[in-house]
Structure prediction request, 163 residues.
Amino acid sequence: MSKDPQPYGDVSKMMIILSKATIDNVYACFILANGARMEGIEAEIFFTFFGLEAVNKKKLNHLKVATVGNPAMHIPTMLGGLPGMESIATNMMKKEMEKLDIPPVDEFLEILSASGVKLWGCKLAMEMFHLEREDLLDELDGILTVGDFYKRADREGTHMLFI
Prediction:
């Protein structure tokens, strides 16, 4: 007898690794995790290296769009490096997100946590950047080593995504 297929094939859990805290990467990660939960798929986010800024209490609401070296900006690198360009691009993106009723980073993290998304800080990156647990958002579920994170992915139907 054949098993009824799951609506999304064999995907039952998404493990997302966030390594950069540019506003576009952070929102891509959050939207994917939120979308997974809305579809009944488990989701976990592992914040490593500069991705930790997305859960750093002092930095999470001050993330920027990268204007230098970002081919998707469709502006020459020299223009992207001009003073104020990063702020202009960031403000434009935030205005567009507001129009779509996309919450700010801190609120989005609360929504993700409340929906069951597990949020993990990377132990090695925290040590490297001299961060303490108190520096990070209270909603964080804990601090893991890379090996601990991989162990959480050790089951059929788990997919890992690096952003």
User: Anything to note?
Assistant: Residues 26 and 93 are 13 Å apart (CA to CA). The chain has a mean pLDDT of 89. The chain has six helices and five strands. The first helix runs from residue 23 to 38.
